[in-house]
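Sequence design from tokenized structure. All designs in this work follow the same two-part layout: the structure record, then the generated sequence. An example of the structure record is given first.
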């Protein structure tokens, strides 16, 4: 019977990703296959926002309420 079990080696022991149906003290043969690392980390929000190259007024961050809700710029401050 062959079963695939995925685990992470923490430097001392293998930590299973999922619970195993193996009985305690069962003899097994282990073959190690190194897996490729997971996909690259997700892009940060700031990097994604910058990549959009949006055209906005220079004071948009300061007066965001005025631009979003029509409030006077001095009332948004």
């Amino acid at each position: 019977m062959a079963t695939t079990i995925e685990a992470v080696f923490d430097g001392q022991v293998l930590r299973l990703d999922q619970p195993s149906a193996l009985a305690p003290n069962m003899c097994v043969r282990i073959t190690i296959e190194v897996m490729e690392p997971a996909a690259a980390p997700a892009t940060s929000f700031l990097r994604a926002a910058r990549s959009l190259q949006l055209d906005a007024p220079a004071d948009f961050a300061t007066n965001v309420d005025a631009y979003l809700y029509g409030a006077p710029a001095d009332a948004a401050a």
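The radius of gyration is 27 Å. We note this feature because it recurs in several other targets discussed in the main text.
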